[in-house]
User: Fold these one by one.
Assistant:
Number 1:
Amino acid sequence: MNPLQTHIRGLTLENPVMNASGIWCTTLEELNQIGHSQSGAIVTKSMTLKERNGNPEPRFAVEEGYSVNSMGLPNPGVDYYCQHVKNLERGGKPVIASIAGFSVQEYTELMARVARQPFDAVEVNLSCPNLESKGIFAYDLETASTILEKLRGMLTAPMGVKLPPYGTRNEISQTAKRFVELGVDFVTLVNSYPLGCAIDADTRKLKIAPNGGVGGLGGKALKPIALGQVLLFAQESDHKLAIIGVGGVDSGRDVIEYLTAGASAVQIATALHTESPSIFKRINKELLLFMKEKHIASLSDIIGTVKSAQ
Ligand code: DHB
């Protein structure tokens, strides 16, 4: 029995660590590199109906302890991924398609195309922070529900939703309960905090150009925010939603924290960008060492087992 094996509903992963959508996953070459690595799954860049160049540069700044990005969904379009998924060097790993539309109709069209292809799951991205003029779909629960109700009926594979950080427990409670009713299988928590900003003191310049210098905040600074979302979504869904944690993961101990809070797997964004896909091997090694030291036989023994501080 592989001690690192984990499950996201029907999917079996040989380990709980994978790339986050957007990092190292836009081209076939990058996706193959994830396939050859020790990632537990392969997640695509959020694909749109048409090819996009994204926002003007500079659009990604990695700083000490955090990152800010406003990429603007650069990707070769849904047909590219549908064409290449059959030949992907996946190394036995599940492949998760991330989709991002600009309207209910576009999400439906995207799902119609990916549902016909050998993707093992679909992560519906309702939380892209970088699209000027469009709000974040997930913050409007009625529109989000309309989208998810339509998409659920189109896919037999597991369907997940990538969400932004919420500011109140009430929003999390309502969202979690509605998603359970709608038959959502998993939630990916969380996308970058939407209104981050980085400034260079020497030049007094903003570090990224699009959207007036404001974009998605990720990296270590996001970790306590994401952990709180994982903890509350697990509670408020009565543990009926599987959870993938994302935000500031760059060590085996980070993975343990997310799993203890209620996640079944984690994704890596900023640290994958900095360290390359060899990061998966390092983190899995750290995880195994930690489990050995603490006499944890299987990850399923710790998922959602967080204890109170008293
Ligand atoms: C982009 C950023 C995101 O956080 C996301 O979920 C999708 C796309 C981007 O700017 O490309």
Note: The mean pLDDT is 97.
Number 2:
Amino acid sequence: MRNKIIIGNWKMNMNTQQLKEFIETVHKHKDEISSSNVIYGIAPVYLHLQMAQSISCEELNIVAQNCYFEEKGAFTGEISISQIKDINLKHVIVGHSERRTLFHESDEIINKKVISLTNNGLTAILCVGESLHEYETGITKDVVKTQVTEALKSISSESMQNVVIAYEPVWAIGTGKTATSAQAQETIKYIREVVTSLYNDEVAENVLIQYGGSVKPNNIKELLEQPDIDGALVGGASLEAASFVELIKNSL
Ligand code: PGA
């Protein structure tokens, strides 16, 4: 049985006071939401990571939204994986569609990040997903196959233990249009087949694959009931502590 993984991607939202209140509320509900097979966490902005890590309990993982692949040096505005490791974080989101489109991150850059993260023993939450145009053209599977294949170049079977894949159709992000659970299941099952073709059945059976795109407390259960969906990457609905707690409760 694979674990479930629910991560709140806060994007460029929240201030330090809101962060503190959020973490306090989640702590109050810790006993109701902690389970040995559900991993959960939040990804605040870089600026708040250290504070979040210092006040958060072990169960509420603090996740970075991005990283740079070089070890150190003249890369103004970036942060390195060793700096993320230095404050004991374990997961980093890479290749989010907003990074791909607004900040022009290529599959090649994303691959470098996945390589550096796994080499450092951190877990890469690798986002893939088709745009609205690609969806309407009927090329979803080709798009995710290319993104997964390119991002996982030079990643060994062993390193795949440190990779989580997040399937996020771009047309469903922040739009209120969720893919139906059947659509999400179909593409995620296909991603698992791509992983089988790149590695083997065992790696594909073990890799956690999340769905993301307008996940809410009222639709997470149905999504997670699908056999290949192992969790959710949640934007908007993760910003309120009560809603975040509901999301986790409905995943148990
Ligand atoms: P959303 O964002 O839940 O607000 O659609 C998801 C994401 O971008 O990860």
Note: The chain is about 40% helix and 15% strand.
